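Notes from the 1:1 (GR / supervisor)

We went over the backlog. Supervisor wanted to see one worked example end to end before approving the batch request, so GR pasted a single chain during the call. The sequence is below; no edits were made to it. Supervisor asked that the structure be written out right there so they could see what the output format looks like.
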Amino acid sequence: MFRKKTKIAVVILLAVAVCIYLLQMFLFKEPRTTFFYLLQDLAFIPISIAVTTIVVGEVIGQRDKRESERKTRMLTSTFFTAMGMDLTESMKHMVVVDQELEDVVENRCTMNLEQRLAFIEHKHVAMQAKKECFDEVKKLICGWETELLVISSNPLLLEHEDFSRLLFAIFHLIDEFRIRGDYDLLTQEDLRHYNEDFETTYKLLLKNMITNVRYQKQTYPNLYGTVRKRYENSN
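Structure output shown during the call:
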């Protein structure tokens, strides 16, 4: 709906245009010529709309998309710097040794980025949640619950499916921790379910970490070098 001021401005502009055309016909006494140019101007309106709404709109849309992606990458980068890397490292100790997965994550393979992400998505990662690792992951995730809620409330994440899925997986783990209680109270069925949830979360961590590493390398190479060195030292 147009605002009242906008409607008034449109009426005034149309009235001015009509007055100008009437003045032109009065002064030059050539209504035929006036109507010819009027129709010519009207014919140009669809072209003007097409240029403004389609071409210019597409350019602005692409710019907004890049800006939105940049802001989203800043969120994911903050997440990994703050707790994502520590969480990935903690969950890594639950993984049954898998050299093929490690080679893909470390980019010691011939796959491109999309192939690596697809590989991780469909790869079965065997997890074994032992008490020490379980307690470490639980403490880390639950300690960051408030910050994760703040990050997840950002509407920009709607356009970043993998990162949204990661947050949902982490929040699901928080619910599981509350409902099932401490490690010593878990049954074998509880542990089996946890291992499945840990696998889902770990795979999403790896996918988001890989895309975040590429973003850091392209955008902030100095920071990427520091993060890379920290990751290598942790191993």
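Supervisor's comment: Residues 162 and 208 are 7 Å apart (CA to CA).
Batch request approved.
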